UniProtKB/TrEMBL annotation:
Cross-referenced InterPro entries: H3K4_H4K5_MeTrfase (IPR050869), SET_dom (IPR001214), SET_dom_sf (IPR046341)
UniProt-listed Gene3D superfamilies: 1.10.220.160, 6.10.140.2220, SET domain
Pfam families: SET
Location of the SET domain: 30-305
Protein's organism: Penicillium cataractarum
Protein name: SET domain-containing protein
PANTHER family: HISTONE-LYSINE N-METHYLTRANSFERASE SMYD, SET DOMAIN-CONTAINING PROTEIN
Length: 353
């Protein structure tokens, strides 16, 4: 991967989230609601005015994995403790698994390692047995996908259900935790047969319920989880995604360092002229911020890709078709459409955001 120079463009996130304590696990702005569009399905919408610059969502990942080249020597790993997720663990300062499963697993302190014991115990044997063979035979992408699934299952097995899941305002019917994961869009019917066949093979070979992975789900349930994960996972990048118009000179969002599944953030649809930016904070939480004044009734969208890339209509639509399996019909795309362009879009967003 190419070398990226990181520069700081803005204040650290905690300074921008007025009145929301850092310990707050999840938060949604009271004016951000879930609604259902007859064509696009589930979406986020403003019930009342949301001023520019407002933090509208803080969502903790239900599962997160590091995505780095050469993890043994890479200083960009995240802490494996899902309550921490601290980034940029130096080689000298991090702790590895005592069972030597894989170099991608590390903790920033013994406190984090101890706190993460039950969750990591769930994945450790699986990682030790299958990580290398999967990487060699299927490649890094499929390994990452399977590891996210294992971490989803690990969280499901080990995360205590919060006594009060309703840190969100009571008027919000948004589901959280495993219930939120179960409600994500995506099923075998939304993916090409060949893709589903390949995932079925992977489930059979590597994700069956058993002593190595005691999750108690059927193969079909795990396959369904893959279909959901692939339609809803986020890539994590050091800088904001979705600044529009893009800053000049063009500065991209940087190199991906993690992938994660967020139960609430996953509901946001795409626009090439989004009214929210998104960026992970230093704890791996996904933060949505209003990048414009959002009027009552307007849909709240993010950009699924780096807007400093794929700038013209053809390139944007091609990228979205290839990576997310839909033809974008956002205001910007429609306004730039030549008269003869046909509208054959499907509403299903897919793959890493
Ligand atoms: Zn930590
Ligand atoms: Zn381990
Ligand atoms: Zn568009």
């Amino acid at each position: 991967m190419s070398q990226v120079v990181y520069i700081t463009l803005e204040e650290p996130i905690p300074n921008r989230i007025d009145g929301i304590p850092k310990t707050q696990s999840d938060w949604i702005h009271p004016n951000l609601i879930e609604s259902v569009d007859p064509v696009k399905g589930r979406q986020l919408r403003a019930s009342e005015h949301i001023p520019k610059g407002t933090c509208v969502l803080i969502d903790h990942p239900y599962a997160i994995i590091p995505v780095v080249d050469d993890p043994a020597t890479n200083d960009d790993l995240i802490c494996s403790n899902s309550a921490c997720n601290r980034r940029s663990l130096s080689q000298s300062g991090r702790l590895s698994c005592s069972n030597s499963c894989i170099a991608d697993v590390s903790w920033c302190s013994s406190t984090c390692r101890d706190a993460d014991k039950a969750r990591h115990d769930f994945e450790c044997t699986w990682l030790k047995r299958y990580a290398d063979p999967i990487r060699k035979k299927w490649g890094e992408y499929d390994f990452g996908m399977l590891w996210v699934i294992v971490r989803l299952l690990a969280s499901r097995q080990t995360k205590p259900r919060p006594q009060n899941e309703n840190v969100l305002p009571t008027s919000q019917p948004l589901k959280h935790g495993w219930a939120g994961i179960e409600s994500l869009c995506g099923s075998v019917d939304t993916w090409p047969h060949e893709q589903v066949r390949s995932w079925t093979t992977l489930v059979k070979k590597y994700l069956q319920n058993g002593p190595v992975l005691p999750h108690g789900l059927s193969a079909d349930q795990v396959l369904h989880l893959i279909c959901q994960e692939e339609a809803n996972s986020f890539g994590l990048y050091p800088r904001e995604t979705g600044i529009y118009p893009p800053p000049q000179p063009l500065v991209g969002r940087g190199e991906q360092f993690a992938a994660a599944v967020y139960p609430t953030a996953a509901m946001a649809n795409h626009s090439c002229v989004p009214n929210m930016t998104h960026k992970p904070d230093e704890d791996g939480r996904m933060i949505f911020t209003a990048s414009r004044d959002i009027l009552p009734g307007q849909e709240c969208c993010i950009s699924y890709f780096d807007l400093t890339k794929h700038t013209d209509l053809t390139s944007r639509r091609e990228h979205l078709r290839k990576s997310f399996k839909f033809t974008c019909q956002c205001d910007r795309c429609v306004s730039e459409e030549p008269a003869e362009e046909t509208n054959d879009w499907t509403p299903m967003p897919m793959m890493d955001i």
